[in-house]
Every structure is written in structure tokens, then in C-alpha cells.
Q: What sequence folds into this?
DNA sequence: TATTGTTATACTCTATAACTATA
DNA sequence: TATAGTTATAGAGTATAACAATA
């Protein structure tokens, strides 16, 4: 299962940035699932946990906007984290429509181990390049995710 | 919708390679959909078309293995391409279990315009970096998608 | 016994519409 | 009127199990 088909010419797709992104992302997702599926954690749940830790009291809609997850899709996600006892939902102090999110004591207790496994997971891929290459990769991925549309032509040409 | 929340500290997730990959991939998918959804094309359909063009007569299971798409999931995908009149399924000459795939005349006629739009789409993102940066990015993404598992410790250290 | 194509099925992610209660 | 949370729903991607025909 290493080489899919030596006789197949895959250059047409391998030359595509979008295709390489997809395959690289899939590889990291597979490793992530291997590590965190036994704990019942998926990427969206873990990302929410990390941001709630860094931003205690953050409201659900703000968390969703930061993670690019629609409000409607945040609900079952937060339900899951709450049912697992990792977070608590509180009424927001300044807005009675909103829900403020915090880690529960159990969530705080579990985060160190989660972060350790996450760091191992990340290192498993970062170790395939030099520190300089890694820094540039993070920078370039950041440029790709920026919204370039709606501004006309601002690209200074490469 | 450019800045989700200026008051939110997102460094915990922005420091993750997996998260940056996800966001960069999502940005390219959004642009891809804007271009190709009106034509009824999705990434999997387009990738299949490109590989069938480069590998006329390729059998379905080999195409699936190359694209990392399970055989069971290839069936509705090929049904869709066939129903759209873009490909034809033929009996494989050497194996009566297999199905050989080829572009139909209509598929061949449509591919040039598809490739043009695809190149524009790709250039919209590649233009955000220098040629050298682009080359390194493609290389690094290729390293990430390689199966590093099952070999023990072969990483030469960065 | 293993593989190819296929069907059926299930789960996750994502997207939209509509409702309520607040603002 | 606009927003926060919620519900319901639908589409796409992905995964496994099982079957018939063939290798």
C-alpha cells in the first residue's frame, strides 16, 4: 500500500497545489485519528478545547468564527465536549443571548496529556524538514488561507 | 468576515501545522468550488478526469488506489462522470473482472477549457509566493504525505 | 484464496433555512 | 433590524461489510 500503482502516471494531479494540500492534510488526519480517536477526540473538538483554554469565557459564536465553523455546527460539537465533562457552558455576563465557554476542572486536568500527544503528532511531520523549511511552510500556508478575493489586484507579483 | 475576532487569541491553533493545512486547503476548496461548481465538477471528479486522460484504459481500482479513494466510493463517482457523458467504461481486455476507463469524445472536448480554469485557479494561489517558495512548498507537502510509519527511525534529523 | 466491481450503510463535516430570545 | 443559540435537514467525503464474477 505504499506505492499505489507504479504504472500509473500521476503527474497531472501531483503538479497541483490543491491536490498536494489534500494529500498532505489527509496524511496528518490519519495520524491524528490514530492518536486521538481512542480518546474520543477529533480535530474540531481538540481545536475548540485549545481555544477555550486560551480564551476563557469566549462565547460560542466567536469560537465558531475563529475556527471557521458555522454556529449551527458548533452546537453538537459543544454538546459533545460538555457531555464528556471537558467544558462548561455559562451565561455570558454582558449578553443574555450568548453562552460563555470554559474548561471544566476535568478538562483542565486532561489538557496536559492531550497537548503532549498533540506535540508528538506534530513533531512526527515537522521532523521531515529543517526548522527553516518548517517556518517557511507555516508562512506559506498562512498566505494561502488569506482571503485574496474582493480586493482587485494587489498581488505584487512573485 | 476577514478577521473573525480581533480579541480572540488563536495562537494555540495557528501554531499547528495540521490546522494551517486545514485552513489553507479550505481556502483552495472554496475557490475551486466557485470556479467548478457551476460546471458540476468537484475535486474528485476533476482528478479522475485528469488521470483517465493521462492513463487511457486505466482500470477503476487502479485509479482509486492512485487517488486514495476506496473502490466502493469510486462507483458513484464514475457513474456521475459516465452519466455526464465525459467518460466511457469498457471491459478490460486482459481481466474480465475489471473495467477500463477512457475519456469520451465529449470529455476530450471539454478538457482544454477545464484545464484552463484549473490553471487560473492554481495561479491565484501560487501567485502569493515566489517560484522558489512554490517549489519548496510542493516538495514539503510531498514529504508530509509520505508514509513515514512502519519503518522505525529513518529520519536523518533536520 | 484474493481481487474487481458493486450495493448498502453509517459517520463526520459542511451548508442552509427557520425558529426563539435577546440586543 | 440584527445577532446568539438552537433545531432540522441535506449534501459530500469517507469508512466497513458483504456479495457475485473472475482471477
A:
Amino acid at each position: 500500500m505504499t506505492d499505489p500503482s507504479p504504472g500509473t502516471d500521476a503527474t497531472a494531479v501531483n503538479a497541483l497545489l490543491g491536490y498536494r494540500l489534500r494529500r498532505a492534510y489527509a496524511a496528518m488526519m490519519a495520524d491524528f485519528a490514530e492518536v486521538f480517536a481512542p480518546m474520543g477526540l477529533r480535530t474540531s473538538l481538540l481545536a475548540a478545547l485549545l481555544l477555550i483554554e486560551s480564551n476563557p469565557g469566549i462565547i460560542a459564536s466567536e469560537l465558531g468564527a475563529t475556527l471557521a465553523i458555522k454556529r449551527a455546527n458548533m452546537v453538537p460539537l459543544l454538546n459533545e465536549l460538555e457531555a464528556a465533562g471537558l467544558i462548561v457552558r455559562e451565561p455570558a455576563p454582558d449578553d443574555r443571548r450568548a453562552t460563555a465557554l470554559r474548561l471544566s476542572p476535568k478538562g483542565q486536568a486532561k489538557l496536559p496529556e492531550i497537548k503532549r500527544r498533540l506535540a508528538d503528532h506534530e513533531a512526527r511531520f515537522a521532523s521531515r524538514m529543517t526548522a527553516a523549511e518548517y517556518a517557511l511552510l507555516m508562512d506559506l500556508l498562512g498566505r494561502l488561507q488569506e482571503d485574496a478575493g474582493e480586493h482587485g489586484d494587489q498581488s505584487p507579483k512573485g
